[in-house]
Each structure stands twice: as structure tokens, then as C-alpha cells.
Design goal:
Length: 114
């Protein structure tokens, strides 16, 4: 089976994402830790698509049967971690909104009493 068209599509997409990462890092909208993490993830995607036997090597090293199983495990863990981070951010934002609304309501009440 010829995977070259898929490899090209994934490579172009990954390079576009990496370009946007670099741009956001230069604009200082992305911290260095976030930049490095996302850069390594997308670099890993490129390596896996161009040299798929690397997943088999790491899977063997970790005692997992197949390389594709390792890729699925890592992807699921990464998705759960990202969902957890999004949950924490949404919860923090909700608390900040509640605090702001309370503050505005108290200010409005004071203005009405005057």
C-alpha cells in the first residue's frame, strides 16, 4: 500500500501548525514551555508518519505488543490531559465571571441607594 499521499498531507498540515506555533511564540502569545511541548508533539507526528517503525521500537521497549497500540495509548492520554486542562481553565473562568458579576451587582446596588 502506498502511504505517500497521506504522508504528504500530514506533513503539510504539521508544517502549517509548526509555522503558526512559531508565529504565536514570536508574538509572545505562547509561553516557551507550551511552545516546546506543542513543537515536540507535532515533530513526533512527522516522525511517526515518515518512519512508522519508530512506534514499534518504543512499544517493544515499553512492553507493548504493537507500535500502533502505543500510538493510540499516547493519543488517548494526551486527549484526556488536554480535556482536564480545558476543564480547569473553564472552571477558573467561571469563578472569575461570578466574582465580576457580584462586584458589578454590589456597585449597582450602591449607586441605586445614593
Amino acid at each position: 500500500m502506498n502511504y505517500l499521499p497521506l504522508q504528504i498531507i500530514v506533513t503539510v498540515f504539521s508544517l502549517l501548525v509548526i509555522y503558526r506555533l512559531i508565529k504565536k511564540f514570536k508574538d509572545k502569545t505562547l509561553k516557551i514551555g507550551e511552545f516546546i511541548t506543542w513543537f515536540l508533539i507535532w515533530l513526533g507526528v512527522l516522525v511517526v508518519f515518515w518512519v512508522p517503525q519508530t512506534t514499534s521500537y518504543f512499544a517493544f521497549f515499553l512492553g507493548i505488543g504493537r507500535g500502533v497500540d502505543l500510538a493510540v495509548y499516547v493519543a488517548v492520554l494526551l486527549i484526556f490531559y488536554l480535556i482536564f486542562r480545558l476543564y480547569l481553565k473553564a472552571d477558573k473562568q467561571q469563578k472569575e465571571i461570578t466574582k465580576l458579576v457580584r462586584h458589578l451587582a454590589l456597585n449597582e446596588r450602591e449607586e441605586d441607594n445614593e
